Amino acid sequence: MKVIRALCMLAGIPNMFGKKEPLEITVSSHGLQFAVPSGKTLLEAALESGIGFPHDCKVGTCGSCRYRLDEGRISELDSSARALSGADYQAGFRLGCQTLPRSNLSIWLLSLSEPVAVAQAFDGRIARVAPLTGDIVELKLRLDRPISFVPGQYAELSVEAIQGARSYSFADAKNCESTDEVSFHIRRVPGEVFTGWLFAGDRLGAPVQVRGPQGGFRLRDGDAPIVCIGGGSGLAPLKCILEHARRAGCARPVTLLYGARTQADLYCLSEIDEISGQWGAAFRFLPVLSSEPNDSDWRGARGLVADYASQAPDLADSQAYLCGPPPMVDAAEALLSRLGVATENIFADRFFERSQV
Ligand code: FES
């Protein structure tokens, strides 16, 4: 039986009971091994094994999950070439989130993140839906047991009536070490079923499945100045990170740039004011409006928030945290690089209308 199992594992083919055996992955750079069950991506399986496989977007755009394939066969959900440089692709780098192993693999990683908590499934119920703007609500869920997460991470939410899960960042850092109450900022996306369901009526008490925590977006250690650039409901993880850092006594200078369409779309201003007032160093907050009527009473910044990145002092020595729609994040990333911020100090969470990915 052992021989049959070994052969099945080598080939990734069904065993005599018709069940596919997991494939084995060797991370030669770190002397680790983990198994990939049939149908899982390399990244999914690594995270489920508690391995700190670097990642951010999980949808093949950020490039954080790149690894070098040294041995074995894979197929890809989407070509890794989309997010990797030509040189990296030629050198054999591929994306973990897009990789379906087809045989046992030997791979090489530049680095590992801190070990991650394995995402777990929780039963939740809607405890509150409170409007934050005309199209963003705070969704508060009560869970069947406490969850722990790192501010910046996200969870997948799903409801029985709707197929598939949607990913949203934790928005409230309170008791993130262990809490049975979690909050998310959810923007209504026209034509999208989950947000359509949520906004359609009174959902108090409705069951919601929660799978988390997930993702590697979080505040990195160090004493570098912090530059946060967010757009729309992409404010949620940035606020969560800063709230937590403030409680931990962080004394690094912060510049928070926040992009919204109009004054009516600005939200969490009192929370930001509170964080800023208790921050242990300089804290600059600059809201930027892209579609505010010219004749309004707004005297603040106008235009695209990414264009204001140069307003942060000591940029070249800063760590930058970006969260929002991909065009905003891409523009901010490009400008920050031009202004001298090292690539390894730019951390991005591209906030897809996650239902669409
Ligand atoms: S490209 Fe894989 S996590 Fe972003």
Give the topology:
Blueprint: H1 2-11, E1 23-27, E2 32-36, H2 42-48, E3 66-71, E4 74-76, H3 86-90, E5 93-95, E6 99-101, E7 105-108, E8 120-131, E9 136-147, E10 154-158, E11 166-169, E12 179-187, H4 193-200, E13 207-214, E14 226-231, H5 235-247, E15 254-260, H6 269-278, E16 283-289, E17 301-302, E18 319-324, H7 326-338, E19 346-350
Parallel strand pairs: 1-7, 14-15, 14-18, 15-16, 16-17, 18-19
Antiparallel strand pairs: 1-2, 3-5, 3-7, 4-6, 8-9, 8-13, 9-12, 10-11, 10-13
The protein binds FE2/S2 (inorganic) cluster.
Structure description:
The protein has 357 residues and is of the alpha/beta class. The chain has three domains: 2-108, Beta-grasp domain (Ubiquitin-like (UB roll)), CATH 3.10.20; 120-214, Elongation Factor Tu (Ef-tu), domain 3 (Beta Barrel), CATH 2.40.30.10; 226-356, Nucleotide-binding domain of ferredoxin-NADP reductase (FNR) module (Rossmann fold), CATH 3.40.50. It has seven helices and 19 strands. The protein has helices at residues 2-11, 42-48, 86-90, 193-200, 235-247, 269-278, 326-338, and strands at 23-27, 32-36, 66-71, 74-76, 93-95, 99-101, 105-108, 120-131, 136-147, 154-158, 166-169, 179-187, 207-214, 226-231, 254-260, 283-289, 301-302, 319-324, 346-350. The strands form four sheets. A six-stranded antiparallel sheet has the order 11-10-13-8-9-12, with no helix packed on it. Strands 17-16-15-14-18-19 form a six-stranded parallel sheet, sandwiched between helices. Helix 7 links the parallel strand 18 and strand 19. The longest helix has 13 residues, at 235-247. It is globular, with a radius of gyration of 21 Å. The two termini are 41 Å apart. Mean pLDDT is 89; it is low at 1-13. Bound molecules: FE2/S2 (inorganic) cluster. FE2/S2 (inorganic) cluster (FES) binds at residues 55-58, 60-65, 83, 95-97.
